[in-house]
Structure formats: structure tokens, C-alpha cells
Amino acid sequence: xxxxxxLRQAVLAKNTMAARVLRAELTARGTTVVxxxxxxxxxxxxxxxxxxxLARERGVATAALTADLATENDATRxxxxxxxxxxxxxxxxxxxxxxMLAGHLHDWLPDPTRLLFVENVGxxxxxxxxxxxxxxxxxLASVTEGEDKPLKYPTAFGLAQLxxxxxxxxxxxxxxxEAAFRAHVQRVNPGVEVVLTSVRTGExxxxxxxxxxxxxxxxSVHAPVMARAGA
Amino acid sequence: MHEMSVALSVVDQVxxxxxxxxxxxxxxxxxxxxxxxxxxxxxxxxxxELACAGTLLEGAELVTRSVPGRAACAPCGRAWDTGMPPDxxxxxxRGGATGLLSGRDLRITEVHWSAxxxxxxxxxxxxxxxx
Lengths: 231, 131
Description:
The complex is a heterodimer.
Chain A: E1 3-10, H1 13-28, E2 32-37, H2 44-57, E3 62-68, H3 73-79, E4 85-89, H4 98-105, E5 115-119, E6 136-142, H5 149-152, H6 154-158, E7 162-166, H7 178-188, E8 194-196, H8 207-216
Parallel strand pairs in A: 2-5, 2-6, 3-4, 3-5, 6-7, 7-8
Helix pairs in contact in A: 2-3
Chain B: H1 3-21, E1 25-34, H2 41-52, E2 61-67, E3 70-73, E4 78-81, E5 99-102, E6 106-115
Parallel strand pairs in B: 1-2
Antiparallel strand pairs in B: 1-6, 3-4, 3-5
Helix pairs in contact in B: 1-2
């Protein structure tokens, strides 16, 4: 006997549930997660190095977890800030999932931790589909990557709650068209904040930390239209 | 490429749904893929075949149905196809869309079991809510 059944199941329901549970558990511990997404080489680690130092100077209990396919280089760099850092090696997997993150936090996340920065695997495709229980999702793009990056990776930019442009000191030599970049971001994600940063010149220093603290304090965080159900 | 993770999730969910009904095989699985879901149907089909090996779904066919992205502007009462890359700006008021009607879907819609024992309805299938 053959039979067709209607099986209305969201494929990523398991991850979504795991993310909800993790968010609730971390919130109960007073920890807010910030999920950082970008292409490889956009400058996630360099920006985090600066923001972790600032967090330490300001006495904000902060930790960072960084994911790569291989090497512990990023953890070594971030650990110089003096905040607790954990390197996750994904053994080839191109993104983090909520239950993986929960497993890595278990037995490691120090108490108290107010902010946990998660540096996702450098990739603008796959990590976009996985909620990690974050309260703030940040997408970075450097000025050398081209103004049309938000159009090429609309799911990543469309779900961002903050967009950070890095390496702004190179905007001139790279002929970066800031207005076009902003217009492309607004097309896929109307209303999201876009900020320019450079770890060389200090532009935008502390903005990531400020926005993370605002999210931790329950301030309003941008709700991307791509994450909102119909009108 | 996260299509392998997605394929493994599909296999896992179909196997779980099959167990209580006692299905012995799966002939076909239909998955809806939204235009904005960030999943490539061809890549998913390739991974699905690998993910099915050695499971109840071995040899099952994957049918994918594309769901267009549609956005809406509540104040204007307009709805439009977002296209790809999506345009979330309302042509009426030039404001941002207020909601997405469809396009982020990634959902198993139908499973065609190849053989069932004499038991009645195979499952009460748990329904998961979309995020």
C-alpha cells in the first residue's frame, strides 16, 4: 500500500528550537549573544580585537568564540585582549548551528558574561540560515568587496540587524561608492543601520560594543522585513 | 555548502515521521524552497541522494517546489514579487516593506511512503511552526 501524507514541517525547525532554548538559557544567565557574519577576510577578527579591548577597558564582562575550518590563529589574536576566548574548529563545516554552539558553551562560558561575541565561519551564504540564539546579528563587508555585495548575498544582508563596513581607510583607493552600497543594503533590508569603521584610523571605534550593550539592555533592535511574517 | 545539513535534517525528520506509522520505505519527498531561503535546489538534490544512503529513504526521489518571494506594504495595501535580488521597497510610497508574505520557506510538504503495513493513518505528525 502506498500513501502520500501531508507533512508540514520546517526543515530547520530543530535548529530554530535549539536557538530558542539557548537564547532563553543565556538570557537567564544575563548573557547576550552577538553573531558576526562576513566573507573571509572582511576584518571580523580585527574589528573584534579592538572592540574586546574597549570592552575590557570599560569593565564589561565579555567573552568571544571564534569558528574556523582550521587553525587557532584567530583565538590567539583575540586572546591578546585579555577576555576569555574559545576557538571552535568546524572540521570543514561551513557554518555554526545552535546545538553546536550550545555544546561549546557548556563548561566554558564564564560567569558572569554580559556579552558573548560569536565570530561565525567566514561565509555569507550558509551561516545566514542558522539562528544561533543571538540577540544581535551583525553583517560586515569591507570596502574592497564591492558595493553590490548586499545584492549578491541578500539573505545574509537581508537578515542583518546591523551592517558594519570595515576598512573605511581604503575607501579612496578602492573607489568605494558608499551611497550605492547604502542603497543596496536598504533595498534588501529597509531601515537597517549601516556604520563605517576602520581599525587603522579608529573610525567607528566602540560602535559594535555600544550596539551590543544596547541590545543587552533590552533596547530596540532592528527587525528586518525578511524576518517578519506578512503584513 | 549547508545543503548537506539541510538534506540530513530532511532525512531525519522523514524518518521520525515514518517510525510510528511503520513505513518501510519512502518513494518521494516534496520540499518547498523559498526564493529567499538561501538554498540551491540542485545542490540540495545532490546532497539528498547522499544523505538517504543507508536509511529508510534510500532511493527516494526529491521533488523541490520553488516559492516566490512576496513582500507587502501594509499602509499602501500593496503586495509584490520581490524578485532576486529582492526589492523590499514599496513602489507606492517608497517606504520599506512591512512584511514578507512568502519566500523564506524551507519546508517538507509531502512524503510518499512506498509501503505501509495494515495500520491505519501513519502518524499524527507533529506540526512545527515556521520562525
